[in-house]
Design brief:
single chain, alpha/beta, Aldehyde Dehydrogenase, Chain A, domain 1, Aldehyde Dehydrogenase, Chain A, domain 2, 2 domains, 6-stranded mixed sheet, Aldehyde dehydrogenase domain-containing protein
């Protein structure tokens, strides 16, 4: 089961489905490519409806036993899994980098530690969640509530933060007593596969977690439309989410959809530019810009626009692109050749529309070693002189491309930020607290960061509005989503 890995000589790893506590091969497999080289580095199952059926059956059979365990027992198993994962941080970080293209250093600093934290956070949080009760004196009755698990939870996670976002769904589903069938992205399956080893070692009973790998239109669709999976948590694109929603309607499934964004940073003339520029460069290009929360539009007050753009472009040019194993590299490879071409098509569109490309847009000139020359690399790209109705300003790019444009007043910028179909997050840069509060009230997004970006407290809700999603995730919201609350009335 263990991945054989050697940088100079690649040995393919075979990912298998994980059903009822065992690793199961499938007749058909898919190739998985390493983004930094363009080479096949793993094979994954090409799961179909029959594989999903086996996984759901295993989850159903395990549900009664798992839901009957105490919160403390479930918490202990997740905490043990967190400890095991933390001990194996370095190897998981390397697998995540090879599978997704991100720098190993980033996976060590963010992806795997956050996956560990997700497990510990919900393992602890469930122990402090309480049910409600009231006394109806005139009727001499007590009302109280019971939170009960929903059943088999279907979890579909994306390729950009593979283990990070899988555990953000998996942990609350498990601690609330549900069993799980998960379908990670076919582009990044390895760390999910390896995490199943962790769950076995931690003592998770067979069938409580099952993972099927493969295409969304086969395995994912079979999971979403299965009548015995009453709950679906999906993170991914808006187009796929519509298919998920339609497939779920027949069975009135509980749905959580965490989707895309066209996030804006608004920089007022009194902003701390040193802090702001450093943060917005990071928010634009972290993880190659492949995070739903990344900044895609930067609106800068006209009085400071020139000063901002000069410093922003210079700092962007200083970002090193290339080998994910180089600790000095900030930008790794994009997830796939197809996605790279899609992102570059927006730069081509900018050229056609007469926008100004201030830096980036080509991998030409990158100092890549021979084994990385076929990788999916792209320089971080800054574009200005873009119209608000351009696709560059309205569509999710999901790559290292950001548009920077000026604005003149507060009313104008509120309208412009809100003019897109997405509403995930925004950041506001100002030293005026009143300005920040006014903007926070009126921006049509799920999260507003003020003078910062990506500071997250898992106790508070996370999610978007408009076409950025349905529902919220976080301690209370996730517990609510993964349980059904029953009211009991007892007359004394």
């Amino acid at each position: 089961m263990y991945l054989a890995y050697h940088r100079e000589k690649m040995i393919l790893t075979e990912v298998k489905n994980f059903i009822n506590g065992e690793f199961v091969s499938t007749e058909s497999t898919l190739d998985s490519f390493e983004p930094s080289t363009g080479d096949v580095w793993a094979t994954i199952p090409n799961s179909d409806k029959n594989d999903v059926e086996l996984a759901v059956e295993a989850a159903q059979n395990a549900f009664l036993g798992w839901s009957s365990t105490s919160r403390q027992e479930r918490s202990n198993i997740l905490s043990k899994a967190a400890d095991i994962l933390e001990r194996r941080l370095d190897e998981f970080a390397e697998w995540e980098s090879r599978d997704q293209g991100k720098p190993v250093r980033l996976a060590k600093l963010i992806d795997i530690p956050r996956a560990v934290y997700n497990l510990r956070f919900f393992a602890s949080g469930i122990l402090h969640d309480i049910n409600s009760s009231t006394i109806l004196e005139k009727a001499n009755a007590i009302n109280y509530t019971i939170k009960q698990p929903v059943g088999v939870a279907g979890l579909i996670s994306p390729w950009n933060l593979p283990l990070y976002l899988l555990t953000f769904k998996l942990a609350p589903a498990l601690v609330t007593g549900n069993t799980v069938v998960a379908k990670p992205s076919e582009l990044t399956s390895v760390t999910a596969f390896k995490f199943c080893e962790v769950l076995n070692e931690a003592g998770l009973p067979p069938g409580v977690v099952n993972m099927v790998f493969g295409y969304g239109h086969k395995a994912g669709e079979a999971l979403v439309s299965h009548p015995c999976v009453p709950l679906i948590s999906f993170t991914g694109g808006t187009v796929t989410a519509e298919r998920v929603r339609l497939a779920s309607v027949k069975y009135c499934k509980k749905l959580s959809l965490e989707l895309g964004g066209k996030n804006a940073a608004v920089v007022f003339k009194d902003a701390n530019l040193t802090k702001c520029i450093s943060s917005t460069v990071r928010s634009s290009f972290l993880n190659q810009g492949e995070i739903c929360l990344c900044t895609s539009r930067i609106f800068v007050h006209r009085q400071i626009f020139q000063q901002f753009i000069e410093s922003f472009v210079q700092e962007t040019r200083n970002l090193k692109v290339g080998n994910p194993y180089d600790d000095n590299c900030i930008i790794g490879a994009l997830i796939s050749k197809e996605h790279l071409n899609k992102v570059k098509s927006f730069v081509t569109l900018a050229e056609k529309e007469g926008a100004s490309i201030l830096c980036g847009d080509k991998s030409d000139g990158l100092n890549l070693s021979d084994d990385k020359k076929n990788g999916y690399f792209m320089r971080p790209t800054v574009i200005t002189d873009v119209a608000d109705d351009s696709r560059l300003m309205t569509e999710e790019i999901f790559g290292p491309v950001v548009c920077v444009v000026p604005f003149d007043d507060e009313e104008e910028i509120i309208y412009r930020v809100n003019s897109v179909k997405y509403g995930l997050c925004a950041s506001v840069w100002s030293q005026d607290v009143s300005t920040i509060h006014r903007m926070a009230q009126r921006l049509q997004v799920g999260t507003v960061w003020a003078n910062c970006w990506l500071i997250r407290d898992l106790n508070v809700p996370f999610g978007g509005i408009k076409e950025s999603g349905i529902g919220r995730e976080g301690l209370k919201d996730s517990i609510h989503f993964y349980t059904e609350e029953k009211t009991v009335c007892l007359q004394l």
